[in-house]
Known about the structure:
The chain is mainly beta and 117 residues long. The protein has one helix at residues 8-11, and strands at residues 15-17, 23-33, 38-45, 50-54, 58-61, 65-67.
Amino acid sequence: MSKKYLSKDKLAGKQVIDTEGIIVGTVRDIVFDLEAKEMALTVGTSAGPEITISQSDVKSVGDVVLLATTVEIPKPPEQAAPMPSPPPAVGEGVCPNCGFKNEPYAKFCVKCGGKLR
């Protein structure tokens, strides 16, 4: 039986699917552990962070990379809520009732109908 070799170019971009049929992510790169003399795949996940999957966890490679195990995809770090924008300063074109910014020449607010001048 002859050996089949895949180049990095043929692996990169393939979807990675675990035993539960869940799409884990997409192959980004191939990495090597020089001490263990083992290859692994770097996989970009939909959650954001990349994960590394050992060659021993790969069941087969075809149109997709099928894993022999399930993979828990790490959750992205929680981001702080954005600061609310300050209300617009009352000035030319800004409605004193609702804060909508109208054209500077407007006499009435387009949003609420309030008088601007």
